[in-house]
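Sanity check

After download, print the first record. It should look like this:
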Amino acid sequence: MELLTINNVWMMIATFLVFVMHLGFASLESGLTQAKNTTNILFKNLFVICMGILTYYAVGFELMYDGGLAIMNNEAGNDAALAYADGAYTYHTDFLFQAMFAATTATIISGAVAERIKLSAFMVISTLFVAFAYPIMGEWKWGGGWLDELGFYDFAGSTIVHSVGGMAALVGAFILGPRLGKYTKDGGISAIPASNLSLAMIGGMLLWLGWFGFNGGSVLSADPVLTSWVLVTTCLSAAAGGIGAMVSSMLMNNNKLDFTMMLNGILAGLVGITAGADVLTPLQSILTGLIAGTIVVASVITLDQYLRIDDPVGAVSVHLTCGIWGTLAVGIFSPDHSVLTQSIGIVAYVLGAVLSAGVLFGATKAVMGIRVSEEEESIGLDLAEHGMSAYSKEALDAA
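Expected structure tokens:
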């Protein structure tokens, strides 16, 4: 019973850390976008965590891990809740931990479609994606499904959470089209400046902090050796990702040091190590992070300049591109896993995310429309959708 208590307490702490990540997502997204859309972005992120928890309770957890509703509602008694996971932690703690992961997929989508999606459309799409698409795909591996039987490995969700959310974000950004004024008729690109880099910094660091729970909690116990190992590989990859992105962006930007690229490089390193944090060595985690930091810069430039897909916060590059890399890294660096099996899992999840997101965005567009009017986008979604502003008129005029 003492070991159960220790494990359970660590799992609850990890849950709290992942919960804090949603504050990080909201801060990062609002900091990297325009001030006139801040309230809208904060609202979306607040909605996602509220509705995500409720829908995961209603249908998601049961879809992903079959047979737990009787325990959840205490119909099976406290003994069943305590015996869950071989007595390592309780059923209810696992539900909360997993619910935080489920809501994360929708926050990834939020960043890529920011500043031009209808709030009502986003609410419908994110609710259905978290309630059905993510749990069904999550069952393929974490619920003991066909990819688990195949040997596919994704420790804490480089692909299952991040690539799935990133692929849905790419589909949404493509269907929505770019923000007004982002691309000129002559083929040029007009940068839309971030409103608050200090807030973006706070958001990025909160995400780094939360990742100690995201990956550390995925050990699913308070095992002192393995938990410490995971925290070390996670931290090393994040740091290396930041350095990799700093150097890469400097080489591609006339020796100018790009703060937002370095910030996204840290997140890229975190996403990259998430699939193999428990099986890669510290040195391998540094290599994984360095490569992720380089890849994210190349991905941002490719999407923006060549594919002309407008992703205001770099969500697709961080989560999809680096999620794929991190999952492949397990097959490359770990002798117990193969690149082929990892690739099969990646393709399955990418196709699943494309199909589900395509249906959701396409159907919502046909039924109710998904993009605000040009007038609403020009004045800002804070006033158009909420009738309020996050900042005073003087502050907005100054911005």
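If your output differs, re-run the checksum step. Summary of this record's structure: The mean pLDDT is 94.
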